[in-house]
């Protein structure tokens, strides 16, 4: 973990995890098309929970990512995620945003255009961060940086479902 | 007015013999004696062959009598007419009947002296076969309107039931109206009797059910003291019983009667309480549990109060009797699978209130509680079973701590149990209680219980159940409604419901320990064989086969000839491709479980099974059958049921037969290969781990080929077979990686395959087939070369139609991204 000697947010507010998605009969019916919906994207982001770099808690528990702030449009191939850093001066914001973006890139079909941004009004330098995250070349370059990739992978390497 | 109309009608419509009339008329006027009158009438009628003339004559009589100012004369005239009608009603035409009806209905409005004769006439008229349909209605309407002293009316109605039923609710309404406000006990008695006939006679009460109930129940409870020197001799008892018969006559009244009973139980008058309790007992024998269900708490509260705070012994015993009747009614109920058991609910209520009193013998409530419990448990087996099970332990425990009082309560419970005959359990229970009463050491009870259990599961049960199934002997199940001739082991055309009872026999007989003798086992086996080979209903023939197998497994030594015969029969059935019962024969063969039976016959069925693998009709069944052969049966052939299970039979089977299997596979035609593969994978899956690991490398090429087999069942079973191997992969697998990965990828991309397997996965397996080799890839560095290919391949299912597939793909693909990546795995 790329941690400093001092934690920025030593005592964060913790939210409860929502339960697993319930299966319906339609889920098993082959003839029924299941559209990609908000909950599904949210599950991608939290089932293999993305960890917060500082705390041994997931982003959902810190309410960094909420289902309400996930918007997907299957027909128009767009996904929009707004995440809320725990404190307004969180320096990890870019990292968190990048982790979310990478997760989605790896998990969604190529047709989707992914937009990850900070929830308006919750961070001091949200414009700068948003600009970075929206820039495709910057993201690709970041991922070629092995150190950065390592950190991102560590966030994404988590308590996967046991086999 | 009508009178004159009739007269004119009579006069104008017909001619009459003028000469004979005057003489007759004079006679009539002089005849005040009714006997002579009747004789004259008969003569009159027999002398006339022509019915028209008879009618005319009587019509002319009327002219003289009806206009008389004396009601007695009029009465006699009507009496004459009625008598005539009684004899010649069969000869009348419809038109005449209509006329006479109109006349009579009008006569009802006349002086009351005439009424009885009018009624007689009406009675005669209603016997006419040509009675027009609406006339019954009109008769009754006028009866209800005009007749106030209704005594004999109802006799008439009881004779003319069929046309009255057609009136249905109108009739009931009329009846209700006429009974309303009646005070004369004779009338009431008759009214009750008629009401009872109405209820029993299947009249449609319609929306007047409540009214009918109201009008009769307002007299409840009856408080009648007959006047001295009453000529009719009607007693209160008669009235009470008659009213009770009405009130308890139909379940439709339940919703009104039960609240009424509860209300009357609250009254202070003893006779009212007694009456209510007795009525409750009576109605419980008629009603079903669904009528009683909502009132149970209220009834129980009242009954409990009556017994706990009893002022009189009569009331107490009536209360207990009512409780017994209630419990018996609830015990009789037939439950559907999702309804709650009202007997249990009720008994829980009772036990909740009474049980704790039994533990406080110093309070005087223990006696009423004990009596209540006794009343409940004497109602039926089910009730007694539940009550004694709940109560006995605490009683016995108490007995061991405090002798005196508990012994009395035990004795009472004993008395309750003793009130049932035939029941072995009750008998034993009595012995137990007797034992407990004489000894004071808890270990005695502990010792007797195992003995009891042994006895109960033994020959007795076996004997009973076998006789039930072979001979239809239902004597040991007395509280149920069986048809008198039940043939449980025969298959009649539509009675699969009966034949599937054989699974109960299976449960009974196959779990018995080996020392127990089964009576008539030869005959039983023959019947079972017959049923399993000929029946159409899958559950029935399978259960019969299982039962047969269970019996054969334990007692095969003595039954070799029978088994021999059975095997020959099966072989012939299976050999003839056109036989209609091949499936059934095959099922029987399968269940006889050759690997388990340690007799020399066992080799024949096995080779037959193998040969069946290439059979077009039974091939896949045979392949699935291998799974049955190798796995544990939960219901009959396991150690818990005292079956004879050879040790290591699976390994032995495998080693003896695997080469045969491989050979068969190699020589089989393409379309039959899948059956062999299926059989192989079934066998492998059920082998213990160690054996799998040693055997698998040799079979790996075969299994991999199975993966590319189009049959999905084969693919599934092969995958489940391979799963333990891949979790702990032997080094032999490394050489096969390329093939494995390639096969897996092709599986993923096949359209229906993926979805079905994912569905299968969710339902049955905790691992992600087919992505599991990807979510936890073995040999990380050895499969790195495949990474790029896999990542590309896994991109497609990310966009699959089904969410389950997508989520699996997401998991797998993310894993592969992390594979070999810095910070990843």
CATH topology of chain A: GMP Synthetase, Chain A, domain 3
**Main structural class of chain B:** mainly alpha
Principal-axes shape call of chain B: elongated
Q: What percent of residues of chain A are in strands? A: 5-15%
Family (chain A): Belongs to the MIP18 family.
Keywords (chain A): Chromosome partition
Organism (chain A): Esox lucius (Northern pike)
Pfam families (chain A): FeS_assembly_P
Summarize the structure.
The complex is a heterodimer of chains A (163) and B (825). With 163 residues, chain A is of the alpha+beta class.
Model description:
The complex is a heterodimer of chains A (163) and B (825). By secondary structure, chain A is α+β, with helices and mostly antiparallel strands. Chain A has a single domain (34-158), classed as Fe-S cluster assembly (FSCA) (GMP Synthetase, Chain A, domain 3, 2-Layer Sandwich). Chain A has six helices and three strands; from the N terminus they run ααββαβααα. In chain A, β1 (65-73) and β2 form a beta hairpin. Residues 1-5 and 159-163 of chain A have low confidence and may be disordered. In chain B, α29 (521-534) runs antiparallel to α30 (538-555). Chain B has 825 residues and is mainly α. Among the domains of chain B are: 1-16 and 27-162, no CATH class; 727-824, no CATH class. The chains are: A alpha+beta (163), B mainly alpha (825). Chains A and B meet through α2, α3 and α6 of A and α40 and α44 of B.
Key phrases:
heterodimer, A: 163 residues, GMP Synthetase, Chain A, domain 3, disordered N terminus, disordered C terminus, B: 825 residues, 68% helix, MMS19 nucleotide excision repair protein (chain B), DNA damage (chain B), cytoskeleton (chain B), ARM-like (chain B), DNA repair (chain B)
């Amino acid at each position: 973990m790329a941690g400093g000697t001092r934690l920025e947010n030593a005592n964060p507010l913790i939210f409860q995890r929502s339960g697993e998605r319930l299966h319906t009969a339609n889920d098993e019916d082959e003839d029924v098309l299941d559209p990609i919906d908000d909950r599904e994207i949210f599950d991608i982001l939290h089932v293999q929970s993305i960890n917060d770099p500082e705390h041994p808690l997931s982003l959902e528990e810190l309410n960094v990512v909420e289902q309400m702030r996930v918007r997907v449009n299957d027909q128009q191939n767009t996904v929009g995620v707004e995440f809320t850093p725990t404190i307004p001066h969180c320096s990890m914001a870019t990292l968190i945003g990048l982790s979310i973006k990478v997760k989605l890139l790896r998990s969604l079909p190529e047709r989707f255009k992914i937009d990850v941004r900070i929830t308006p009004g919750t961070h001091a330098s949200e414009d700068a961060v948003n600009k970075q995250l929206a820039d495709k070349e910057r993201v690709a370059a970041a991922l070629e940086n092995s150190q950065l990739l390592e950190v991102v992978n560590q966030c994404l390497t988590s308590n996967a479902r046991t086999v | 007015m009508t009178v004159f109309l009739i007269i004119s009608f009579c006069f104008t419509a017909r001619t009459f013999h003028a000469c004979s009339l005057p003489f007759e008329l004079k006679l009539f006027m002089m005849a005040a004696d009714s006997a002579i009158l009747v004789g004259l009438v008969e003569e009159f009628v027999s002398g006339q062959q022509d019915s028209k003339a008879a009618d005319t004559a009587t019509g002319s009589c009327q002219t003289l009598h009806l206009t008389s100012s004396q009601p007695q004369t009029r009465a006699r005239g009507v009496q004459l007419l009625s008598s005539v009608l009684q004899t010649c009603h069969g000869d009348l035409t419809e038109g005449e009947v209509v006329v006479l009806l109109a006349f009579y209905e009008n006569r009802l409005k006349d002086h009351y002296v005439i009424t009885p004769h009018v009624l007689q006439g009406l009675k005669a008229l209603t016997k006419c076969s040509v009675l027009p349909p609406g006339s019954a209605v009109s008769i009754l309407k006028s009866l209800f309107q005009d007749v106030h002293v209704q005594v004999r009316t109802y006799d008439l109605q009881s004779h003319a039931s069929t046309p009255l039923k057609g009136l249905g609710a109108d009739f009931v309404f009329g009846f209700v109206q006429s009974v309303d406000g009646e005070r004369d006990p004779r009338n009431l008695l008759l009214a009750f009797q008629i009401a009872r006939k109405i209820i029993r006679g299947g009249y449609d009460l319609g929306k007047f059910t409540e009214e009918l109930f109201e009008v009769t129940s307002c007299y409840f409870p009856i408080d009648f003291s007959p006047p001295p020197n009453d000529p009719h001799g009607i007693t209160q008892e008669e009235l009470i019983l008659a009213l009770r018969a009405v009130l308890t006559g139909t379940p439709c009244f339940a919703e009104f009667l039960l609240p009424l009973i509860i209300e009357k139980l609250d009254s202070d008058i003893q006779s009212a309480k007694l009456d209510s309790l007795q009525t409750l007992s009576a109605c419980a024998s008629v009603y079903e549990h669904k009528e009683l269900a909502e009132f149970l708490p209220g009834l129980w509260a009242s009954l409990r109060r009556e017994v706990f705070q009893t002022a009189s012994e009569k009331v107490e015993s009536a209360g207990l009797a009512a409780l017994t009747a209630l419990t018996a009614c609830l015990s009789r109920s037939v439950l559907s699978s999702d309804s709650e058991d009202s007997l249990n609910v009720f008994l829980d209520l009772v036990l909740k209130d009474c049980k704790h009193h039994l533990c406080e013998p110093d309070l005087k409530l223990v006696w009423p509680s004990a009596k209540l419990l006794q009343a409940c448990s004497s109602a039926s087996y089910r009730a007694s079973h539940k009550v004694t099970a709940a109560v006995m332990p605490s009683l016995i425990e108490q007995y061991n701590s405090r002798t005196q009082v508990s012994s009395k309560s035990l004795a009472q419970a004993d008395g309750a149990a003793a009130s049932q005959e035939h029941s072995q359990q009750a008998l034993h229970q009595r012995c137990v209680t007797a034992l407990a009463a004489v000894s004071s050491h808890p270990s005695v009870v502990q010792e007797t219980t195992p003995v009891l259990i042994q006895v109960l599961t033994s020959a007795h049960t076996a004997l009973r159940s076998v006789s039930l199934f072979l001979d239809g002997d239902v004597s040991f199940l007395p509280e149920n409604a069986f048809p008198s001739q039940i043939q449980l082991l025969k298959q009649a055309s539509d009675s699969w419901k009966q034949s599937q009872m054989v699974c109960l026999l299976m449960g009974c007989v196959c779990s018995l320990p080996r020392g127990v003798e089964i009576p008539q086992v030869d005959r039983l086996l023959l019947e079972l064989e017959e049923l399993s080979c000929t029946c159409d209903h899958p559950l029935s023939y399978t259960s019969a086969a299982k039962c047969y197998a269970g019996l054969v497994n334990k007692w095969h030594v003595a039954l070799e000839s029978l088994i021999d015969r059975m095997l020959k029969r099966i072989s012939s059935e299976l050999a003839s491709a056109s036989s209609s019962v091949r499936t059934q024969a095959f099922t029987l063969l399968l269940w006889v479980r050759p690997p388990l039976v340690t007799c020399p016959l066992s080799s024949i069925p096995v080779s037959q099974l193998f040969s069946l693998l290439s059979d077009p009709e039974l091939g896949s069944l045979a392949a699935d059958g291998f799974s049955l052969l190798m796995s544990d049966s939960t219901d009959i052939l396991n150690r818990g049921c005292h079956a004879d299970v050879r040790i290591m039979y699976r390994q032995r089977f495998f080693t003896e037969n695997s080469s045969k299997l491989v050979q068969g596979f190699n020589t089989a035609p393409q379309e039959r290969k899948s059956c062999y593969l299926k059989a192989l994978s079934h066998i492998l899956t059920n082998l213990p781990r160690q054996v799998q690991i040693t055997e698998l490398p040799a079979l790996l090429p075969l299994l991999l080929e199975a993966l590319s087999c189009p049959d999905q069942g084969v693919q599934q079973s092969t995958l489940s077979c391979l799963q333990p191997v891949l979790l702990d992969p032997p080094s032999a697998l490394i050489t096969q990686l390329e093939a494995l990965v390639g096969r897996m990828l092709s599986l993923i991309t096949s359209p229906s395959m993926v979805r079905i397997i994912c569905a299968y996965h969710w339902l049955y397996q905790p691992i992600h087939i087919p992505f599991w080799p990807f979510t936890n890839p073995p040999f990380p560095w050895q499969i790195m070369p495949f990474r790029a290919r896999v990542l590309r391949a896994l991109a497609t299912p990310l966009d699959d139609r089904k969410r389950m597939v997508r989520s699996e793909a997401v998991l797998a693909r993310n894993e592969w991204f992390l594979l070999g990546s810095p910070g990843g795995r």
